[in-house]
Write a structure and sequence with these properties.
This protein is α+β, with helices and mostly antiparallel strands. It folds into 3 domains: about 1-40, no CATH class; about 40-115 and about 200-210; about 120-175. It is built from 4 helices and 11 strands. The strands form 3 sheets. It has a 5-stranded mixed beta sheet, with no helix packed on it. It has a 4-stranded antiparallel beta sheet with strand order 3-5-9-7, with no helix packed on it. The chain has a two-stranded antiparallel sheet with strand order 1-2. A hairpin with a 2-residue loop joins strand 10 (about 185-195) and strand 11. Helix 2 runs antiparallel to helix 3. The mean pLDDT is about 75.
């Protein structure tokens, strides 16, 4: 008979009944019976620090995953992440770990973020406005020269029209479709870290803050 225990969610060692042996005589009379106790091995997980922040989107946040055997755990344990923010991923180094002795082992967990693009719309608006000012030069020329009243009136009308066009420059620039903003958005996130070995798994929640 083979008995397969279920892993502990807390990582504490568990005992279970390894099976019962019976000695049966004639007439199905049980002459002797004994239970064979057994003890399973398991592991626990701890992630530090509990919260981490990056100075700017695009920088990684590093965590340390400590795996402790109870009493030993020779099976391979891998670490993964879920509930990551947009543009983020996690890499564990090494990819897996086996606890062949009673000592704990560590895995470095790097949560990488993606930089957000720099918006340059204001600079382009200033450049357009600078070039638009040159359209006013012809109007100033007509206003400044000559004594003919009709010529001065035409120059003033041209100058007013050009300044009206200058006021419309922001509207024209804002109507242009801008590229969607990508990268990891700013905010505070709760990330789930899972250490798994077959059907035996442990989970922990860590915090990540992106400015």
């Amino acid at each position: 008979m083979v008995v397969t225990p279920t892993g502990s969610t807390t990582g504490n060692r568990q005992t279970f009944n390894g099976g019962t042996v019976q000695a049966v005589g004639n007439g199905n009379i049980v002459l002797a019976q004994v239970s064979v106790p057994a003890e399973m091995s398991d592991f626990s997980m701890k992630v530090s620090p509990f919260n981490q922040s990056v100075p700017v989107a695009g920088e990684p946040a590093n965590y340390t995953v400590t795996l402790s055997p109870d009493p030993v755990y020779p099976s391979s344990i891998s670490v993964s992440c879920s509930n990551l923010p947009t543009g983020a991923s996690c890499v564990s180094t090494p990819a897996s770990l086996s606890l062949l002795s009673t000592s704990s082992g560590t895995i470095n967990l790097a949560v990488t973020t993606t930089a957000r693009p720099v918006v340059t719309g204001a600079a382009s608006f200033v450049q357009r406005s600078f070039y638009a000012l040159w359209f006013a030069v012809p109007g100033l020329f007509f206003v400044g020269i000559g004594s003919n009243r009709r010529r001065r009136m035409a120059g003033m009308f041209t100058l007013c029209a050009l300044f009206t066009m200058l006021l419309l420059v922001p509207a024209c620039s804002s109507s242009k479709t801008q590229a969607p903003v990508s990268g990891t958005p700013s905010g505070s996130y709760n990330i789930t870290v899972t250490a798994a070995s077959g059907s035996d798994s442990k989970t922990s929640t860590i915090g990540l803050t992106v400015p």
